[in-house]
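Reminder to self: tokens first, then the designed residues, so the page reads top to bottom the way the pipeline ran.
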């Protein structure tokens, strides 16, 4: 049996006619930037998150960067980020001129350990980036309590967690502002790049909207030296179709995850754990194994696609050699990098395919 790590085939097959009609509609309207589709998608996605404002932008990295910039974070400031996340979280901080300060995760949940955050707070700290890694929300009550104590902003990196909830509240509505990515492989993915800022903060929403549009509040009037980072009409039209299916797709991901959790029985494999009060959307199903590279080769040889999220932690990336952080500084992030393996998880996986993955993992 051949099971890719991810496939869009079934998902896109089911909505093909609607997607093509949505594209044709934009094509015939001949209006491609800042039109009705983006406006409607922004309303619909804000409603979906039960938040007040949504601002489409070019991608998830820009969403995070624009939020930080709008909050005035820059040179001389520090922002706390988890030591295990996609590099975009840290890059968004670096682009403002501020410094990312890493905090270790709880290994069983893969999310930032709230008990370690206070040690990293200095008089330069301005914000905490709460990443909902792999689709599970971070422990937001604890994070918010620290933020209140030290007067910090809480910014959600929600790039992997569209639709996940914490104590019944959706991501995007759990901090001061959230950045989402609509990269094609994300749970809600465009057919290209896309992103959004979601917030209840009206001032921030206005500022982000201007910053992503050349710093302009109305045509040819510029109040900031802004960026060009906009969601386009075609992607917004396609995202509107997909948003209507998101909960159903996330539900299927949860069914697959439940089978993995109940049926994978191998002492060498550590399964992911969902913390109390959370619903997970399983952007990634990340298992851990001391013999990870051997396991990966074995699965690949048996026709099962895999991935690693992420093979090199940010503090050991060449891009961040200026921070001068030696190996061993963040042992939990390093342990995750060395042992994590992501197994197939996508809408459209059949029960037989799930059974096959489980069978091969149990035979390892
Ligand atoms: C994908 C991702 C981003 C960046 O999103 P892009 O749309 O690719 O710019 C940021 N943070 C995390 C955790 C991600 O997974």
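Designed residues (364 positions):
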């Amino acid at each position: 049996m051949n099971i890719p790590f991810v496939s869009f085939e079934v998902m896109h097959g089911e909505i093909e006619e609607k997607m093509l009609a949505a594209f044709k509609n934009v094509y015939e309207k001949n209006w491609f930037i800042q039109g009705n589709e983006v406006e409607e998608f922004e309303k619909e996605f804000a409603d979906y998150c039960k938040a007040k404002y949504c601002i489409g932008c070019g991608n998830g990295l820009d969403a995070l960067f624009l939020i930080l910039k709008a909050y005035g974070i820059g040179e001389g400031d520090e922002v706390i980020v988890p030591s295990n996340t996609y590099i975009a979280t840290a890059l968004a901080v670096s682009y403002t001129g501020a410094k990312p300060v890493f905090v270790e995760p709880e290994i069983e949940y893969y999310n930032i350990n709230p008990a370690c955050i206070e040690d990293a707070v200095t008089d330069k700290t301005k914000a905490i980036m709460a990443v909902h890694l792999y689709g599970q929300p971070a422990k937001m009550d604890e994070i918010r309590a620290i933020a209140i104590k030290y007067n910090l902003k809480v910014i959600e990196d929600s790039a992997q967690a569209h639709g996940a909830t914490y104590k019944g509240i959706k991501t995007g509505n759990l901090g001061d502002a959230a950045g989402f990515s609509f990269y094609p492989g994300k749970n809600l993915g465009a057919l290209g790049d896309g992103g959004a800022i979601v917030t209840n903060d009206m001032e921030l929403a206005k500022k982000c909207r201007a910053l992503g549009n050349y710093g302009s509040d109305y045509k040819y009037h510029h109040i900031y030296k802004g960026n060009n980072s906009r969601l386009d009409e075609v992607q917004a039209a396609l995202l509107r179709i997909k948003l209507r299916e998101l909960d159903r797709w996330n539900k299927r991901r949860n069914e697959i995850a439940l089978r993995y959790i109940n049926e994978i029985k191998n002492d060498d494999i550590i399964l992911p754990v969902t913390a109390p009060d959370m619903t997970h959307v399983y952007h990634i199903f990340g298992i851990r194994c001391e013999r990870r590279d051997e396991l990966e080769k074995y699965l690949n040889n048996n026709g099962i696609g895999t991935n690693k999220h992420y093979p090199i932690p940010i503090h050991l990336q060449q891009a961040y050699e200026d921070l001068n952080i030696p190996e061993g500084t963040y042992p939990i992030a390093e342990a995750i990098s060395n042992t994590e393996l992501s197994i197939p998880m996508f809408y459209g996986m059949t029960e037989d395919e799930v059974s096959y993955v489980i069978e091969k993992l149990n035979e390892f």
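The pocket of pyridoxal-5'-phosphate is lined by residues 59-61, 85-86, 88-89, 131, 157, 159-160, 181, 183, 193, 195 (CB under 6 Å).
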